[in-house]
């Protein structure tokens, strides 16, 4: 019997592990190659930094021997194969003796950084750097690394992998066979004892069907786990609408998908001539979520705020969007004037928005606003329940306007999978304690299965807040909250934009955009043009950026008559006194600065205080020389990512606030403290002086970041976590159903 066990268990295990090793080996090789190449790139940069001063000094030395000797000493390194020094005109100054003959100054001057070349059957990594030479012309420094060491290390790693797998195989086989032997012996002894009982045949008669049911459920769970692992491998580097659709189909089994938000993705307004116009609201949330719901073909429920919204829906308050290419359904929810005033302008904006943004605006909480907030959240919950076609839809709730929804939906649809994404920052526990309704809000939010934020910092603040004010059990390592028998996962999902942006296809090339903008706004073609795109909000730092421009013009006369800053400011929440006052102050500041520095037809600030459609915004982003995003406090800020995505020409400079979530990802931008007026002015001056090559290098890295971490990746990671939640729920339900029937059988085992 032991021999049979060895054949039945050992051989399949060995075969599987051998196959796994065979399959994994290429991936290990590729991983090591990428690691080593990255190491070489970093090493090249470090070597250049260490040698730059010496090379510049020696290049000026009238004795060329000193430079040659220095190059030979440096190339004594095991990996650094050769160094070539050229002037800016591609003329050779010096080269190490080991330098390949096929690499001379002329091609060296045009080599892209980090290029791999195959010469005489060997691979070399060639990197070009520009050494500053003070008042003299710059030098081109070419560093050549021999990549043959990668092959040697890959062989060593492969041998090590095989040895480790072999040892693991032996241990696993011994353990599995030993356990199987012990279980089999115990089962045989138990079976003999049961045969002696009279009731055995009666129990056995009903067992096969029940066992098949349990086995089927177990197989389903295993298939879902395998599918999850496969999808995570397949799509972790290439998130597209198709990948997102595949995830929804495979992992979520094409569930009913709902997005719920206050702001709607399309607004219908009545024009002066009586016609209906469709506009796309200026909202980072809409920018991010709309491509996701397009890919998932779900239902979006939102407040209908347009003057012609009621005239554009069917009797169920629904319509297919986008216009001209419908791919999902929008259902509008109607609010009274009183509800909108208390729920939206009052509690949500004067209260929560001011509380969560550290922009020194005092939050205001009124009992009447809280009552309207509760009432509107109830209205949304009722609409969701009526719209649901199944018992367990996936519901993605967007932002702080609807924080009570998770609990309200849970009470009505207990099997629903609920994710709440908070698009704005989450303050410290002490700051959130200001809110009189903090306990009610927190208790409602953690009724969700997942609560998401832009950054891990905001997650930690939320966990600390719940820990302080709500009776719960918190696993800080797993970022999981358990309260009232329900588990809530808290996670960071840095939001992004579609790649390429949906609206970018109809926008002209950068040169054409610049020509059109200059003609429209009467700006000289050679002007140094900056752009800011914001909703007119006190958190966006518009006044501070105007002050920075004024400070810069005071101290940089060369920019007078040359710098033009275009500020697109979409009016928002104008009913609120703080916003109306901000708009007045901003207009006054722009007028004052323009009057102070105006020359002929030139003014430094162009204030465009109206709503702009996405295609118009992208035109300005492509036309400008720099984009200034100096938010005083921001969850993410997608304008920064839109600017990066818009610059296919790899020109332009992004100046980004350190207090915007995007600064954690776009580290190649010029990061500023928006409260530091002089520092922001200096960043604009630095953008003015920045070379085309440096602009290109920074933008290439940022474009790669935005492309890889696009909105489909954001949604995919969140929905993958949603799938895990649903899988845990099914397993829990399965266990609950099976355990009463098989408790005696499990005791027997």
Detail the topology: elements first, then pairings.
Layout: H1 2-60, H2 64-74, E1 80-87, E2 92-95, H3 105-108, E3 115-119, E4 122-131, E5 139-146, H4 148-195, H5 200-205, H6 207-235, H7 241-250, E6 257-260, E7 267-270, E8 276-279, H8 284-296, E9 299-303, E10 318-321, E11 328-333, H9 337-356, H10 367-387, E12 394-398, H11 405-412, E13 417-421, H12 429-432, H13 438-445, E14 450-453, H14 456-469, E15 473-475, E16 480-483, E17 486-492, H15 510-521, E18 528-535, H16 542-555, E19 563-570, H17 577-597, E20 605-608, H18 614-623, E21 626-629, H19 638-646, E22 653-657, E23 670-672, H20 677-689, H21 692-708, H22 711-748
Parallel strand pairs: 6-9, 6-12, 9-11, 12-13, 13-14, 14-17, 18-19, 18-21, 19-20, 21-22, 22-23
Antiparallel strand pairs: 1-2, 1-5, 3-4, 4-5, 7-8, 10-11, 15-16, 16-17
Helix pairs in contact: 1-4, 6-22, 7-8, 7-22, 9-10, 10-11, 15-18, 16-17, 16-20
């Amino acid at each position: 019997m032991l021999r049979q066990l060895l054949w039945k268990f050992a051989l399949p295990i060995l075969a599987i592990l051998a196959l796994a090793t065979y399959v994994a080996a290429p991936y290990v090789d590729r991983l090591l190659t990428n690691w080593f190449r990255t190491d070489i790139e970093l090493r090249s940069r470090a070597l250049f930094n260490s040698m730059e001063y010496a090379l510049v000094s020696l290049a000026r030395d009238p004795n060329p021997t000193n430079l040659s000797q220095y190059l030979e000493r440096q190339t004594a390194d095991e990996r650094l194969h050769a160094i070539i020094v050229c002037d800016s005109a591609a003329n050779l100054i010096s080269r190490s003796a080991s330098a390949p003959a096929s690499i001379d100054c002329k091609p060296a001057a045009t080599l892209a950084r980090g290029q791999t070349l195959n010469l005489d059957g060997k691979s070399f990594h060639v990197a070009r750097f520009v050494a500053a030479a003070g008042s003299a012309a710059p030098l081109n420094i070419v560093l050549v690394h021999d990549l043959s060491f990668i092959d040697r290390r890959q062989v060593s790693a492969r041998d090590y992998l095989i040895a480790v797998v072999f040892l693991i195989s032996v241990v696993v086989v011994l353990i599995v066979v030993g356990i199987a032997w012990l279980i089999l012996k115990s089962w045989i002894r138990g079976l003999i004892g049961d045969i002696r009982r009279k009731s055995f045949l009666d129990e056995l008669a009903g067992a096969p069907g029940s066992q098949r049911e349990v086995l089927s459920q177990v197989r389903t769970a295993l298939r879902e786990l395998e599918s999850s692992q496969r999808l995570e491998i397949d799509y972790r580097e290439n998130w597209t609408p198709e990948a997102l659709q595949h995830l929804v189909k495979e992992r979520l089994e094409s569930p009913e998908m709902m997005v719920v938000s206050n702001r709607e993705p399309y607004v219908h307004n009545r024009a002066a001539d009586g016609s209906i116009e469709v506009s796309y609201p200026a909202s980072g949330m809409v920018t991010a979520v709309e491509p996701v719901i397009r890919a998932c073909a779900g239902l979006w429920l939102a407040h209908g705020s347009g003057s012609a919204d009621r005239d554009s829906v069917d009797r169920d308050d629904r319509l297919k969007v986008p216009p001209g290419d419908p791919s999902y359904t929008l259902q509008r929810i109607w609010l009274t004037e009183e509800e909108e005033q208390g729920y939206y302008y009052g509690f949500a904006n004067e209260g929560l928005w001011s509380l969560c943004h550290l922009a020194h605006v005092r939050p205001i909480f009124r009992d009447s606003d809280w009552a309207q907030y509760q009432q509107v959240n109830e209205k949304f919950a009722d609409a969701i329940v009526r719209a649901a076609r199944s018992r367990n839809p996936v519901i993605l709730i967007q932002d702080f306007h609807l924080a009570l929804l998770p609990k309200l939906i849970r009470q009505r649809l207990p099997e629903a999978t609920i994710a709440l994404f908070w698009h704005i920052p989450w303050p410290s526990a002490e700051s959130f304690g200001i809110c009189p309704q903090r306990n009610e809000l927190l208790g409602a939010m953690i009724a969700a299965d997942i609560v998401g934020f832009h950054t891990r910092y905001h997650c930690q603040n939320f966990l600390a807040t719940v820990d302080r004010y709500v009776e719960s059990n918190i696993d800080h390592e797993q970022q999981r909250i358990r309260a009232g028998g329900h588990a809530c996962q808290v996670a960071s999902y840095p939001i992004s934009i579609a790649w390429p942006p949906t609206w970018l296809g109809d926008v002209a090339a950068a040169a054409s955009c610049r020509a059109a903008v200059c003609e429209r706004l009467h700006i000289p073609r050679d002007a140094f043009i900056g752009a800011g795109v914001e909703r007119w909000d006190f958190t966006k730092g518009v006044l501070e950026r105007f002050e920075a421009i004024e400070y810069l013009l005071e101290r940089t006369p060369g920019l007078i008559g040359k710098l033009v800053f275009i500020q697109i400011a979409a009016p928002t929440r104008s009913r609120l006194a703080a916003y109306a006052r901000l708009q007045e102050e901003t207009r006054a500041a722009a007028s004052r600065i323009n009057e102070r520095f105006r020359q002929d037809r030139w003014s430094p600030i162009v204030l465009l205080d109206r709503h702009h459609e996405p295609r118009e915004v992208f035109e300005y982003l492509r036309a400008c020389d720099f984009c200034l995003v100096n938010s005083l406090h921001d969850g993410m800020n997608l304008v920064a990512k839109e600017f990066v995505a818009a610059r296919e020409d790899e020109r332009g400079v992004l100046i980004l606030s350190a207090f915007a979530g995007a600064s954690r990802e776009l580290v190649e931008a010029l990061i500023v403290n928006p409260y530091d007026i002089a520092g922001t002015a200096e960043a604009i001056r630095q953008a003015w002086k920045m070379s085309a090559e440096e602009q290109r290098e920074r933008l290439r890295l940022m474009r790669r970041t935005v492309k890889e971490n696009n909105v489909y990746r954001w949604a995919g990671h969140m929905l993958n976590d949603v799938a895990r939640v649903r899988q845990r729920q099914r397993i829990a339900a399965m266990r609950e159903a099976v355990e009463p029937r098989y408790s005696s059988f499990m005791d027997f085992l």
